[in-house]
Amino acid sequence: MRDDVALSFDGAEPFRGQRPRAPAGQMAGGQGPMGRNGASVLPFMPFDLGAPSSGNVAPPSGRLSYGGGSGNGFGAFEDELPLLEELGINIPQIMRRTITVLNPFRINPDLHEDADLSGPIIFCVLFGVCQLLAGKLHFGVILGWTTLASLFLYMVFNLLAGKNGSLDLYRCVSLVGYCLIPMVLFSALSIFVPGRGLVKLIMAAVTVLWCTRSCTSLMAVLVPHADEHKVLVAYPCGLIYVAFSLLVVF
Fold it and tell me: For 187-219, how does the pLDDT look when each residue is reduced to its tens digit (9 = 90+)?
């Protein structure tokens, strides 16, 4: 077919003549605009990043890091905080609080000024692991009873204190969880004590008194006006830890 003949499919006469010219400033074949001297205005960017660019675009300098921007690889992560600190888990603080709860005659309430849930969750899991070693699957029961016990203690104390009640649920869960440490030790020791004899019952009674004294002493110091109702607060605390001891004995 001749180049100067364009076919028409709508019944019109075929167009004869020269090809339409490209607009001024555009290269043939649709390659982009042209300058006055015939050179392309758009710069050419090669695929090889190491090769120099033919336009005014500067090659990338440095290496991109995962932290964003240019840097030396993983240098951006050097200023990041440790994962435990970002999650709010302070292991040394939890160890100091554990030691002060294990001493029933000398409890340092200053360590429990800031309530947290990391320690109670750890001790609930340890309690469940000890029960699992004894052949009892009580993970859900322990977590559920800890939540209900905290709600129960929260309601009882605020009802006793009336307008002066200032115990929040977050601190209540923290106190109940940390004072569960003697119960965890009792659960671990009961693995080596067979049966439900007198020895295990005596251990359960001592553990309940230990947990009750620790929880009541901490509440009396940390919560305002709790010292006025110390004996009344000890009763619900004792009921809470009696329920946990029944899990270990039976």
Answer: 999 999 988 889 999 999 999 999 999 999 898
In a domain, 29, yes or no: no
Q: How many domains does the chain have?
A: 1
- Residue 16 covered by a domain: no
Cβ(59)–Cβ(53) under 8 Å?
A: yes
SS3 33: strand
Distance (Å, whole) CA 194 – CA 150: 31
DSSP 175-201: HHHHTTHHHHHHHHHGGGS-TT-HHHH
Cβ atoms 212, 245 nearer than 8 A: no
What is the reported pTM? 0.67
Are 248 and 190 spatial neighbours (Cβ–Cβ below 8 Å)? yes
Range of the domain at 245: 92-102+114-249
